[in-house]
Amino acid sequence: MNTPITFEIETLNAGSAMDIGTGKFTAPVKSKGTYFFTFDGLANYPASGSAFNYMQVQLLLNGNLMGTAQINEANVVSFTSVLSPVTLQSTLHLQKGDQIWLQIGDILKDGVLFDSVYHSSHFTGFLIEEDLFNYLYYFITVNCF
């Protein structure tokens, strides 16, 4: 808990902004702007676990909490394992060098974030719009004289 969630498989990493070994996305130097992030995963609770299941996944920006997704549910059939979806989306304005990561904020002791050969957990981020205002202002100022 309270450490970045790491990933094993990298499908696309244009610009090498995501370090799957540390679980951290670092905004590229030339890409100050608005980003969209989404996480989809499965919480797994074994058959011998609690009748109440709980997991909280947090999205952090430079160590500050930006969003939380959580599941709270009762497992009425306690002799079967339970897979529960957990999702989180956020649109954030990032400066160069800002870091984004996911972490498990709280979970019942028998629960885990589940993945398998079907790749059930995904973290995706992309630049929606790059801030060009400062650059345009500079060029307009230079061209005006």
In short:
With 145 residues, this protein is mainly beta. It contains one helix and nine strands.
Could you explain the architecture of this structure?
By secondary structure, this protein is mainly beta. The protein has one domain (14-144): Sandwich (Jelly Rolls), CATH 2.60.120. It is built from one helix and nine strands, in the order E-E-E-E-E-E-E-E-E-H. The strands form two sheets. Strands 1-2-7-4-5 form a five-stranded antiparallel sheet, with no helix packed on it. Strands 3, 6, 8 and 9 form a four-stranded antiparallel sheet that branches. The protein is elongated and about 60 Å long. Residues 136-145 have low confidence and may be disordered.
Features:
single chain; mainly beta; Jelly Rolls; five-stranded antiparallel beta sheet; four-stranded antiparallel beta sheet; 9 strands; 50% strand
